[in-house]
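Dear colleague,

Following up on yesterday's call, I've attached the two folding results inline so they're easy to grep. Please treat them as preliminary; we haven't cross-checked anything against experimental data yet. The first protein's sequence and structure tokens come first.
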Amino acid sequence: MSGTLVLVRHGQSEWNLKNLFTGWRDVDLTEQGRAEAKDAGERLKAKGLSFDIAFTSDLQRAQKTSQSILDVLGQSSLETIRQQALNERDYGDLSGLNKDDARQKWGEEQVHVWRRSYDVPPPGGESLRDTGARVWPYYIHTIQPYVLSGKTVLVAAHGNSLRALIMALEGLTGEQIVKTELNTGVPIIYRLNADSTVASKEILEA
């Protein structure tokens, strides 16, 4: 076995709570989201994990989740790399809209296609495949080398940027990954083999 990769979707954000499409909008965590991030840290601490390096997106909800986890682990000053490639999927014209209002404007079926298809982007935005096109190269060239050298790596990011990563790690199809639900603040621990394949996976549910 090689190293350990821990993926965490940020805690609940203010726009998750309001049922709005968020995407690249830089909204904060709710009180519940801050608690979820702290709880994630406690669960990782109970597993005896500590990190060698952390990666997060350009958006504060992911950054604050990462920092809360590291604070709980007593690793507040750990090197943390912020990278736009790990940002949430860009929802384009849907950003900032209430999901119910979007359904009224474009229809239930069309909004469902934009939200849950693999390769159909919303107007002015990204599909999950588009999101993967920026996540995968960054993972392969920058994050994966740390894991394969035996390091323990934290990635705190977003539902869709993490879906793209999980798709690559587990060899899932587009159809499979769009059905994959990721709860906020729940760490997923992957232990990788030296050839980058997954040796084991553990989800630390609350």
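Below is the second protein, in the same order (sequence, then structure):
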Amino acid sequence: MARIKSAENAKDPATGRPLPHGVNCRGLRQHRAWKLLNGQRIIRTFDTARLARAWLEETSVKVREGRHIDVRALDGLVLRTLIERYRDECLAHRDADRTGHIPALLRDPIADLKLSRLTVPEVRGFRDRQGKDLAPATVVKRLNLLASILNHAMSEWDVPLTLNPASGRMIKRPTGADRKRNRRLVEDAPEGPTPPTATNTTEASEYERLLAAVTSESHPDDVWFVRWAIEQATRLGHVDKRSIRSA
């Protein structure tokens, strides 16, 4: 025999109006909605009766149209599991992400959320926490990495997320992340820079200040490595500095 709602559970405490079949109030901020699907109840709990009623109506429409996806599996999955799996399976060649950005994701409280609780406001909170101490470009990289993890989980691991709450369409990226550099190491004269000294660094160019800083270190011969690297447009990862010294 079906359970009958009590008089208190059958009304919306905010408005006093009767709740629809499939929604009841179980206490403060405990409004439960349920829908029978394939002989099993799908149950969700919401803070307000309005949200519970909206979920019930939306789910009913999806069931009628054959668009409903059973997301109960999301209750048993934690975001941390996806991050670690993505790290182990997809980032073997990306050391910067494995050693920098992935540990940062795992340290944040968002990593311990069930996927059923992973919403746009939760990702927004992650963005704002990261933005307190980090440059906008770093925050954008971590948001994009999180979005990539969720996209991969949806397309390759059949995780039944209905949307990606970290995507650029859902979460605004911090401003200022795409600022271009405006400092260039340019010599002032065709014949080369003025020899750097302790007295002329104030008026020296960026190029001269760099050479002066290198010359003042404990390895003054490094100035030749710096000159060579600039002329060759060499990045840090392209050359082993120790091999240049030993040459």
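For the second protein, one point worth flagging: The chain has eight helices and three strands.

Best wishes,
A.L.
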